[in-house]
Amino acid sequence: MIGFPLRKRGIEGDFFQPIKSPPTPLFLRGELLLYIQYWCLMPNLITIYPMKTPPPQLLSISYAHQAQKSLAQAFADAHQLPCQLLSKAQSELTLNFTEMQLEIIDLQNNMRLSVDFIGGSTGHRKKYGGGKGQTIAKAIGIKQGKPIPSVLDATAGLGKDAYVFACLGCPVTLIERSPIVAALLKDGIERGTLNIEFSATIANGFTLLNTDALQYIQALDEEQRPDVIYLDPMYPEKKKSASVKKSMQILQKLLGQDLDTDEILLAALQKARKRVVVKRPKGAAQLQVGQSPTLSYESKATRYDVYII
Ligand SMILES: C[S@@+](CC[C@H](N)C(=O)[O-])C[C@H]1O[C@@H](n2cnc3c(N)ncnc32)[C@H](O)[C@@H]1O
User: Would the CB of 277 count as within 6 Å of ligand 1?
Assistant: First the structure.
């Protein structure tokens, strides 16, 4: 296994050239950051899901100042997207490199989004979220006196749920297929690790892989099988988008709907050791895989369908 320290800030160029090359994981254990070429771990087992490059009218890459130009340009070149100063961006969305963070901006609706594990709603949830009493904790099988499960979050998105699992003490592997979303998440993790409490929270493992969950899960061997596989696919767009959180509005614009979740669930049912959990909006239909969930937990707006193995 080859490893070398990851820079604390900024974006590693080859993290974002995954469409033709193997995925590169971000491996975090305690305060030690290792950057490992994935092919050293699982040679030739995984082919990369070819993410559709968003059209330039939808997404461009931008930078706030000349100092970030080379990082932004490298990312843009890897994904064949236009790159310009933020003030010149013409697209609906732009992935913007600033001195402080990576952010995605909805230029039409004047909304911006970045990953923040320390402040904001995620930090608030860690402090006041209810720990083991939370519905999501029950859904993944956290119980007094029972071993803490390892979790594969197959649809990591902005990492909010994954961080809840880490706060509960779980070792977590995060899979995200969109290189844009993975870049935002990676940036949030890197900034987070400057905070001692965050580093301690993810000490049991918080590994991000920019790859496709279906192929990753299918390729898991016996030893790599996680206790829990968690799925939170993109929901169909709501007509009245005011009820959709800003972050989801931007992700829906960028990613659209996830259409392969049934297949991922089928693969997950083969590979999870203990359970598969699917997050759905309350009232939404169960996924159609010829098997009903063993049980469901409901919170205010969400239902967790649990398939016990
Ligand atoms: C609704 S978001 C997940 C939000 C996440 N649970 C959170 O707490 O921030 C769904 C994410 O799953 C990702 N995704 C969907 N299908 C995937 C797949 N087959 N492999 C990897 N990622 C996938 C999408 O790109 C999107 O970022």
Answer: no
In a domain, 130, yes or no: yes
For residue 290, being part of any structural domain is answered with yes
Give pTM, 2 decimals: 0.84
Residue 92 one-letter amino acid: E
| Helical (H) or strand (E) element with 255 | helix 246-255
How many beta carbons lie within 10 A of that of residue 31, not counting itself?
12
The reply to whether 230 falls in a domain is yes
Task: Confirm or reject: Cβ of 265 under 6 Å from ligand 1.
Answer: no
CA–centroid distance, 66 to ligand 1, in Å, is 32
Report mean pLDDT in 10-residue bins for the chain, 309 residues: 28 32 40 33 35 81 98 95 97 97 95 91 64 90 95 97 96 97 97 95 96 96 98 75 73 89 96 98 91 94 96
Q: Which residues constitute the domain of residue 233?
A: 2-50+116-243+255-308
Nearest protein Cα to ligand 1, atom 27: 157
Question: Radius of gyration of the chain from Cα atoms?
Answer: 19
Instruction: With beta carbons less than 8 A apart as the criterion, state whether 151 and 226 touch.
Output: yes
Domain total of the chain: 1
Whether 57 is in a domain gets the answer: no
CATH of residue 161 = 3.40.50.150
Tell whether ligand 1 has an atom less than 6 A from the beta carbon of residue 116: no
